[in-house]
Amino acid sequence: MATGNVRYVRYIAIALFTLTLWYFVSHSKYDTIPIVDGKQASFPGGPGAPQVPGDSSGGSKPPAFPQGEGVTVGDVPKDETPLKDDTVPKGSNLPVDESQSEIPPPATSDLPKEDTEKAKGDETTKSDAAAEMPMPLTPNDPGWSNLQDIAPGPRMNATFVTLARNSDVWEIAESIRQVEDRFNRRYGYDWVFLNDQPFDDNFKKVTTSLVSGTTHYGLIPEEHWSFPEWIDQDKAKKVREDMKERKIIYGDSISYRHMCRFESGFFFRQPLMLNYEYYWRVEPSIKLFCDIHYDPFRVIAENKKKYSFVLSLYEYIDTIPTLWDSTKKFMANHPEHISDDNSMAFLSDDGGENYNKCHFWSNFEVGSLEWLRSKAYIDYFEALDRDGGFFYERWGDAPVHSIAAALLLKKEEIHFFDDIAYYHVPFTHCPTGEQKRLDLRCHCDPKENFDWKGYSCTSRYFELNGIDKPAGYEEQT
Ligand SMILES: Nc1nc2c(ncn2[C@@H]2O[C@H](COP(=O)(O)OP(=O)(O)O)[C@@H](O)[C@H]2O)c(=O)[nH]1
Ligand SMILES: [Mg+2]
């Protein structure tokens, strides 16, 4: 009998426990997902995030970033040159209040519209905005550890830019994902894609779904992707055959030559690019290994930098045997373009007589489009183009950009982004200091760092600029 009572008590206890558990589970909520206007979630793509009408991704696209008037910096307001070609504005179908209400606007967008109009291109307002919202550059700076929210502060008039074929879609998807995860998801910068063939729907769909900013797709005009009329076709063909026999990488490729010439002289002049003042070049299959806590575009703009790099190395001489001769001819013809405070010591060990083949690796660049569009740079490109080495040899855009930067710019206008840990086959830049790698949550193997190895030119850049190399660099030589 007593045993029976105990059993009943146990049943009642289990029933009570189950009811209590059910009550707590059904009434609990995640504190990190606030209820906003009866909707859950204030993070892009989260439960309850704005549904984009007609969006087959089920509303998983991030909402539009607050990058409108008044938050751009520079003399080329985005609206001045109409966007050409195919443009897919991020969240363009969203009702305005829905796309903007849940994202904190950057500092300057609080200004009334007429003030923001006035603010465009106004130096005082730009520097005020920068001063009010300084970037956290080190772990001790306020705001450093906040990598969740949309980044406060002004946005630069800047875009990512990628040259790609339709067949590069999955390799570029991988790169975009890295760039977005480590940086752009908090900034929403635009992305311009350029191609010598029309981009197909799949390329546009995949890339637009991954980029947090607005994507633009441009078709390169034939005159920027073909042989100029002064090129002797027979001579160019013989060169390709000879280079093929000598097994020079891409030596027999016509399209690679068009690509190098395009990246040297035309990408920054495409109609879509005219809307912007700064660019960040991204290639397929690259990796970013560390969090990027600040806006590299702002670093460039606020410090008046014009060009930047993360990796440097020696060029394969068989691809550029006469590039330096053409450069010396240009220097003699245009002494007015050569900077008094140049980086010749990066390029030459004998005061300019011979080229040491050092160059910045141009598959990563953050830089000034205004500089590339300057008379000095265009004169240099046109002088090289006339000499025909893009086709009679196989001049790469990396030595072309690098020689131009080293000769036409002041030393301090070239920046080394140590914090941007990067991989493009087969080289890696991984910050040397352990504390930095931990602070930036890097996942690169420091043993892979190329900076101080014998085939890198980065030591020269440090020495030329009087910058101390980081502690521990000797262990990575
Ligand atoms: N549209 C287009 N893009 C190209 C072509 N060839 C190369 N590219 C792009 O140009 C960039 C450099 O080419 P890549 O193959 O990475 O050269 P590598 O890094 O020097 O080995 C990449 O962004 C490619 O996607 C081409 O024929 N057409
Ligand atoms: Mg590449």
UniProtKB/TrEMBL annotation:
Positions with biased composition (Basic and acidic residues)? 76-88, 111-126
Origin species: Cylindrodendrum hubeiense
Q: PANTHER family recorded for this chain? A: ALPHA-1,2 MANNOSYLTRANSFERASE KTR1
UniProt keywords (A-Z) are: Glycosyltransferase, Membrane, Transferase, Transmembrane, Transmembrane helix
Output one GO BP term. protein N-linked glycosylation
This protein is called what?
Uncharacterized protein
- Would you identify the family this protein belongs to, as annotated? Belongs to the glycosyltransferase 15 family.
> Residues annotated as region Disordered?
41-143
Q: Which GO terms describe its molecular function?
A: alpha-1,2-mannosyltransferase activity
- The answer to whether UniProt assigns keyword Membrane to this entry is yes
Q: Which GO terms describe its cellular component?
A: Golgi apparatus; membrane
**Alphabetized Pfam families for the sequence:** Glyco_transf_15
- Give the superkingdom in one word: Eukaryota
> Where would you find the membrane-spanning parts of this chain?
7-25
